[in-house]
Amino acid sequence: MNVLENPVRYIEPTQSAGREFFLRGIEGHFIMLNLLRFRDIADYSQSPELAPESAISGEAAFEKYIEHTLPFLQASGGELLFLGDGGHFLIGPETERWDKVMLVRQTSVERFMAFNSQQDYLAGIGHRTAAIEDARLLPFTQPPSRFG
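Given the sequence above, the corresponding structure tokens read:
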């Protein structure tokens, strides 16, 4: 199935996904893999107060989101480990592409939840909403190494 034919888009976690994340019982730090596909033109209809004077790309709106978010992420103990250009999968659906790939490390689920509910952070989240056409977010942990 072509991505353009698929009407399901993922922008925010569902309540059940959030509950499952919390119930995983992750202790200590974890990393989140973000796959991001941007809108051609950012859609600020849900946050008109953040809209620039003239139209910008989804990627430019996401850059505004990152600029806004980094101080809050760092204050929470989080760290942007990687932000790079994506593309098509080498192994995976040939019709699926991601514009950016991001890895974020957070020190704990509790600190992530506190960061994610902070009013000053939330004041700029409209840049992300305006930017993203579709996204995936996969939290993961690193088990103790068995290979060394």
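The radius of gyration is 16 Å. Try to locate this feature in the token string yourself.
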